[in-house]
Amino acid sequence: MIPKITFERPHLMSWRKRLIIIAAAVIAIESSALAYVIHRRYVAENSLARQEVLAAKDAKIIAARREVPVVKKLPPRTTFSDFLSDYGLEAATIQKMVQATRPVYNLAKVRAGNQVTLVTSAKGGLKEIGYEIDPEHMLWIKNQSPSFGASVRKIPFVTKVAEVSGTVHSSLFNAVEDQGEQDQLTLNFADIFAWDFDFNTDTQNGDQFKVIVQKKYLNGKLAGYGKILAAEYDSGGQHYQALLFRDPSGEPAYYGPDGKAVKKAFLRSPLRFAAPITSPFSYHRFHPILKRYLPHLGIDYGAPMGSKVQTVGDGTVIFAGWDGGGGREVKIRHAMGYETFYLHLSHILVHRGQHVHQGQVIALSGRSGLATGPHLDFRIELHGKFRNFLALKLPPARAVSRKDWPQFVKLRNQLLPELASLHPHKQGMEQASLHSPGSPRKAGQ
Prior knowledge:
Elements (H helix, E strand, L loop, with lengths): L9 H56 L1 E7 L6 H8 L3 H11 L13 E7 L4 E9 L2 E8 L2 E8 L3 E10 L4 H7 L4 H10 L15 E11 L2 E15 L2 E9 L5 E4 L21 E3 L2 E5 L6 E4 L2 E3 L6 E3 L4 E8 L5 E6 L4 E11 L6 E2 L4 E5 L10 E7 L2 E3 L17 H17 L9 E5 L10
Antiparallel strand pairs: 1-2, 2-3, 3-4, 4-5, 6-7, 6-23, 7-8, 8-9, 9-10, 11-14, 12-13, 14-21, 15-20, 16-17, 16-19, 17-18, 18-20, 18-21, 21-22
Helix pairs in contact: 4-5
C-alpha cells in the first residue's frame, strides 16, 4: 500500500516558527530581567552593609562627641576648687583651670547658690565648665587639652517689655503670683519702695500695684526679669510711683514724678517680708522674762528662725558678737550720726570693721539672749539717743539734676500715661503690647 503523503500548509508552518521565536525572546528577556534584579539586589546588599558599617562608626563618633550638661548650685562655704575636686577633677587639672581663668575672672569671687554647669562627653570626659557670674553673664572654661581657655559671655536672652498689675488680697507675693509671675518680680518691686513703705506691716487688702518690667526669655521660656522701668503702689490713700532714670553719675536710679530720688538714706525695715511687729517702741513695756516694766527702745519683728536680716543703710560694722541680754548682736555706724542695732540673732554674717551696703544681708534672726521666741529686735540711735524708727523722719532724697531735667520730663510723660492705662485685675498674666528693647523708655539704663 502506498503511504499517504501529507504537506503542511505554508501559513501554519510560519505561525509555529513565530511562536518559537517569541518564546525564545520572552525567555531571554526574563533571564536578563532576573539577572538585573539579582545584580541590583547584590549591589543593594553590599551598599547596605557598607552603610551599616559607616553608621556604626558615626554612632561611636556621635556618642563620643555628645555633650551631657549637668547643672548644680555652688554649696555654701565651698571654694570653686573644692567644688571641682568633689566632682572628681584632679588637683593638677584644677590648678591649670584656675591659672587659665585668672586673666578674665577671679574664681575666688564665686558665690554660694550660683549655678555651675558641667559639660562632659558621653564617655565622661570634661568638655566645658560654666559659672553664672550674675544674671547677665556666664564664665565658660573650655577644655583645650592639654590646656584650658576661659571667656566671659553674655547670656543670650531675648528681652521683652511687659505690663503687669493686680490687687492685693492677702499678700503682695500672692497678688503677683495671681498674675502668673514669679517671686523675684515681687522682691524687685518691693525693693524700689522699701525706703517709703514697709511691706511687713503696711500692706492692706485692696492695695493695688502696677509695673512695667523687662522679661528675659531663653529658648522661648521665661528665664528671669530685667529692670523695672516704672512702678506704682496704692495703699490706704497713699500713692507711690517710681520711674527708672539715671543719677548724676549715669547709674540707673529711681525717681518719683516730682524728680526726687526714691532711694533714701535708710530702708523702712530690716526685713523684707512677712514679719509683723510684735512689740513696738515704748518707754514703759512689761518685760515677758524679767516680769517688770522697762523701756523697750526698739521694734520687735516676729521673724521666723533664720530669716535674713538686712542693714537698712550703708555703714561700718562697729560690733558683731555676743552682748548679754541682747544675745548675738550687730551694730552698724552710718553717716549723719545714726547707728543701728540688730539683736537676738541666730547667726552673724559680718565682722567688726566691715563696710556694708544698704540691703546687704548681715545676719539671720533667732532667739539668742533674753528672748521668749524667735524674733528680731531692731533699734536706731541718732546722736546717742534711741529713736522710734517708725516715726523717724528720714533724711531727704536727692533730685534729678537740672541738666537732666528735660530728658526726665520726656520719659515721665511717656511712662505715667502707660501706668495710668493699666487696670488691676484678678488674673491676666500680662497686659498691653510688648515694646522692643530699643524703646526710648530705657533712658534709665
